[in-house]
């Protein structure tokens, strides 16, 4: 069983990943922490509460702060053309949801929950890495107490999706991502190298809606806006970025990984680029020395991953 804190910016593909975590028998979802990204943190928190209510999820929701790790970074705006004005595909989410939010900021919730369950908690982060980086800054000794960190973000051997160099979750807070990649905890990065190969067709989604009851029907309704966006990029369906990170936790054998130090470019033309230094290569002394080796997913069995996601939903 995996005790999971899900750090998320719902977000349409985030919603699918949340339902996956809620329904997978090997996952014990013990917390949801929100971050800005696909929408403001006010909106992503409201959306997390909405999905919690609609799907009967028990885990507490803790809200993140509304600033990047480096507060001087200019704000880049929200991708309403991908996730809708409400962040959930314009399905008329109520403005407020009458459920409590944990009184602690997200990063404090993460620290407290990990310290209460040493060695047991997996952090799955599928938005900006802001909350994880803030937790590391507030409590530098807590990283070794985390079982595993699995991230949806980055692009290693493929182009980014915000710039040719950078993927959205990393580009939105590169300083935070660099802190997370270089911390003394085991990180696996599930980036565009594998997520863009994992396209759920409209027929698969319709089958999930037919088999998965009201929660899956709601997910299908939310996803239509996202499919319309993705139709410009893939022939039939949508890329299920965030669910890939969740699938990795329960089925790592479906992924091919590469080890090496990972760093994030902060500023300039390649702002937000993720770069991995393979273990076997020698370089002169550099900012890559004496840092933990982390894993980057570079290939995936997309058909089996999609089946796992579909059967779980
Ligand atoms: C990532 O960016 C967001 O739009 C998605 O939710 C996903 O986490 C993909 O680049
Ligand atoms: Ca996301």
Automatic annotation (TrEMBL):
Keywords: Glycosidase, Hydrolase. Transmembrane segments: none annotated. GO terms for cellular component: cytosol. One of its GO terms (biological process) is purine nucleoside catabolic process. Residues 4-305 form the Inosine/uridine-preferring nucleoside hydrolase domain. InterPro entries: Inosine/uridine_hydrolase_dom (IPR001910), IUNH (IPR023186), Ribo_hydro-like (IPR036452). One of its GO terms (molecular function) is purine nucleosidase activity. PANTHER family: INOSINE-URIDINE PREFERRING NUCLEOSIDE HYDROLASE (PTHR12304), URIDINE NUCLEOSIDASE (PTHR12304:SF4). This is Nucleoside hydrolase. The lineage of its organism: Bacteria, Pseudomonadati, Pseudomonadota, Alphaproteobacteria, Hyphomicrobiales.
